[in-house]
């Protein structure tokens, strides 16, 4: 928008300059008409050529400025596209599979590493997480997995958000009959979301709400600048 405003100002300035130029030409022409010169026709031809040359130069400068704005805008757009794609594709993970933490401590631990508790809000993000887990060899040595994600409804029951990104959780991959906010004692309910995997029960990387104070494995993620 800033480039467009500058461009409009340049156009207005050129129009005003053109009007002044025409007025000056008219006055000059009037003066010539009030005097007698032997080579008057030749002089007027020279003056007309001079005016045309000035207007041509002004138009050329305008085209150069316009082309510069177009080139700058194109380069800026290309850089933004490349950076956006690069950040998305270069996500890195830390899989805390050697010790367990409750949800709040998992959030803090990820932040101490300059990372965030993992957010999964579409199939592509899930594929990246699953691929990382599978490559770690975890599923070859463990029968099941419950792993904290950043999703929770601590702010309002039933309204799940991703604490790491602030986005509403819209990826519908819940385990059957979940989330159910099950009550575990007089004051403990299920408000934090795990990604769970246990094929004998048909749990193939699905979501389940669990009590936030229970210790589970977890995963951190970061985006490169």
From TrEMBL:
PROSITE patterns xrefs: C_TYPE_LECTIN_2
InterPro entries: C-type_lectin-like (IPR001304), C-type_lectin-like/link_sf (IPR016186), C-type_lectin/snaclec_domain (IPR050111), CTDL_fold (IPR016187)
SMART domains reported for this sequence: CLECT
Protein origin, superkingdom: Eukaryota
Name of the protein this chain belongs to: Uncharacterized protein
Organism, as annotated: Anopheles atroparvus
Organism lineage: Eukaryota, Metazoa, Ecdysozoa, Arthropoda, Hexapoda
């Amino acid at each position: 928008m800033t480039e467009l405003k500058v461009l409009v100002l340049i156009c207005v300035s050129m129009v005003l300059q053109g009007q002044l130029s025409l007025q000056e030409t008219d006055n000059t022409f009037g003066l010539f008409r009030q005097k007698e010169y032997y080579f008057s026709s030749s002089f007027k031809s020279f003056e007309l050529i001079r005016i045309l040359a000035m207007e041509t130069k002004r138009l050329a400068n305008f085209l150069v400025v316009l082309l510069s704005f177009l080139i700058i805008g194109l380069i800026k757009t290309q850089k933004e596209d490349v950076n956006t794609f690069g950040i998305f594709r270069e996500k890195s993970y830390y899989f805390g599979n050697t010790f367990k933490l409750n949800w709040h401590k998992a959030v803090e631990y990820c932040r101490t590493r300059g990372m965030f508790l993992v957010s999964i809000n579409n199939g592509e993000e899930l594929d990246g997480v699953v691929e990382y887990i599978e490559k770690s060899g975890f599923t070859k040595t463990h029968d099941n997995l419950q792993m904290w994600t950043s999703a929770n409804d601590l702010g309002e029951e039933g309204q799940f958000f991703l604490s790491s990104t602030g986005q509403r959780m819209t990826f519908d991959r819940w385990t059957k009959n979940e989330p159910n906010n099950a009550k575990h004692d007089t004051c403990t309910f299920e408000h934090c979301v795990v990604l769970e995997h246990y094929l004998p029960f048909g749990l193939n990387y699905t979501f389940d709400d669990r009590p936030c104070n229970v210790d589970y494995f977890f995963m951190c993620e970061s985006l490169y600048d």
